[in-house]
Amino acid sequence: MIIIMSPSATEEEIHLVQHEIEATGFRPFMNPGVERKVIAVLGELDVRKADLAEQFQAMAGVARVELISDLWKLASRSYYPAGSVVRVGDVSIGSDEVVIVAGPCSVESEAQMIQLAHQIKAAGGKMLRGGAFKPRTSPYSFQGLGEEGLRILAKAREETGLPVVTEVMDTHEVDLVCKYADVLQIGTRNMQNYALLKKVGTTGHPVLLKRGLGSKIRDLLMSAEYIISEGNTKVILCERGITTFEDSTRNTTDINAIPVLKNWTHLPVMLDPSHATGNWQYVAAIAGAAVAAGSDGVMIEVHNDPARAWSDGPQSLTPERFQNLVVRLRAIAEAVDRAV
Ligand code: PEP
Ligand code: MN
């Protein structure tokens, strides 16, 4: 349930409504990013919903009370019909611009990252990616450079001005990653790590939440709800392919997820065609499909020497191929009234 206060409602009237919500055993939530004076009523409302709606409707300063039927209340499109824009430095995700995030799967060295960062920026990339803490299927695979990787990412940002997104895997590393990164990535394997979701929800950092490889769109939205309900409304969702019976590609891109998410939530939506396909030859086609389907951005793995990459070489584009892809995405974006 959300209570929409009238624009002229006083602080006192807002306070009284919040107090009344608490008195009825629920939790009031005000979104600082929403210009309207909207108070969400959180809790297990179902049984008493109709009575409470009438009770709040009668209070001074209340313009309207709306019931939100979705289980994800704060992530619901009806909570913020205009659609939210997540700002990261000069970059706006969820605006008319389709944002291209690019970089290697793993940060391997300072020289590699700085060179790639310049190439990505020159090609039109707006944000850098690179893993410092890597969730690998095998414990014997490269696990990432850790804090050294974060330091290198910060250096690449310093040199190019591009904000950086990097994965955080553990609640104990959230503060550390916040010191270096602009956006915290929650990887597919941690989409339902509720302790981690709650922890990143207490930071002011934007979060890129990737869909679990075996998770439904509904589950992705419930995970987003965990982050937002802790007070962090800056959540970007990312489709990255799901596990299906099809084995010709690493994962199966659920392109449906883009229009479904745009319909169900106000949060910006991105697609990662690199992990979705696992094969650089298919990355351009699926990145183009994502932009055509209404994605607010794409995240692309780029490596200066894919054959020697420490992780995910087969799905990484060379900087030249990345440059060609940006040109292609620009044309597709224009056809759907967006810009790259
Ligand atoms: C990544 O983006 O580096 C990554 C590991 O992706 P995912 O969690 O989607 O597998
Ligand atoms: Mn990768």
Describe the structure.
This protein is of the alpha/beta class. The chain folds into two domains: 2-66, 2-Layer Sandwich (Alpha-Beta Plaits), CATH 3.30.70.260; 86-335, Aldolase class I (TIM Barrel, Alpha-Beta Barrel), CATH 3.20.20. 36% of the residues lie in helices and 17% in strands. The chain has helices at residues 11-23, 49-57, 110-123, 147-160, 174-180, 194-201, 217-229, 257-264, 273-277, 280-293, 319-335, and strands spanning 2-5, 27-30, 38-42, 62-66, 86-88, 91-93, 99-103, 127-129, 164-167, 183-186, 207-210, 235-239, 269-271, 297-301. Strand 11, helix 7 (217-229) and strand 12 (235-239) form a beta-alpha-beta unit. Helix 3 (110-123) runs parallel beside helix 11 (319-335).
Can you describe this structure in just a few lines?
This protein is an alpha/beta fold. Helix content is 36%, strand content 17%. The two termini are 37 Å apart.
Topology:
Elements (H helix, E strand, L loop, with lengths): L1 E4 L5 H13 L3 E4 L7 E5 L6 H9 L4 E5 L19 E3 L2 E3 L5 E5 L6 H14 L3 E3 L17 H14 L3 E4 L6 H7 L2 E4 L7 H8 L5 E4 L6 H13 L5 E5 L17 H8 L4 E3 L1 H5 L2 H14 L3 E5 L17 H17 L5
Parallel strand pairs: 7-8, 7-14, 8-9, 9-10, 10-11, 11-12, 12-13, 13-14
Antiparallel strand pairs: 1-3, 1-4, 2-3, 5-6
Bound molecules: phosphoenolpyruvate and manganese (II) ion (MN).
For the structure shown, list the relevant keywords.
340 residues; alpha/beta; Alpha-Beta Plaits; TIM Barrel; 2 domains; eight-stranded parallel barrel; four-stranded antiparallel β-sheet; binds phosphoenolpyruvate; binds manganese (II) ion
